[in-house]
Specification:
By secondary structure, this protein is α+β, with helices and mostly antiparallel strands. Helices cover about 25% and strands about 25% of the residues.
Amino acid sequence: MALTDSNPIPLHSVAPEFQLKNVVTDQWISLPKKNEFKATVIMFICNHCPYVIHVNPELIRLANDYMHKGVRFIAISSNDVTHYPDDSPELMLVQAKQLNYPFPYCYDDSQEVARAYDAACTPDFYVFNAELKLAYHGRLDASRPGNDLPLNGADIRHALDALLINEAPSEIQYPSMGCNIKWKK
């Protein structure tokens, strides 16, 4: 496991459009130019990374706390399943069902979506406003496996709370940190 920080992305960047299949429902999920949500959270995650395993309970709580407020959550796995079979769509389905993910869990086989977002690690979080402009890109909170800090999603919760009252989140944003995305060779 190589510890990797998220890449810096300019705030106000427009969310790249995509269309990926949700492994749970087998339906296509897209991020079109027109948006009906107050905020959209794109999460690059995977099954095997200890950093994602650590934050999974809070991802579920976060989505359950904010989806009814008009926030959309989409999880994407872009890892090379040839070398990391634990991240296969079949095992993504198993994990999503076991953990009862309340959000779509999509597989980016071509890795084009991860590249379009300049995603670097899992987990890697992007919060877009209603106009699909980047308002927050960084960590979930300060907790990490083994550091005993509370797992509470504070950084993303603050960003979402600001967006929901039509304010800009703080521009002080700390990078996410986790396993590097497993790129195909």
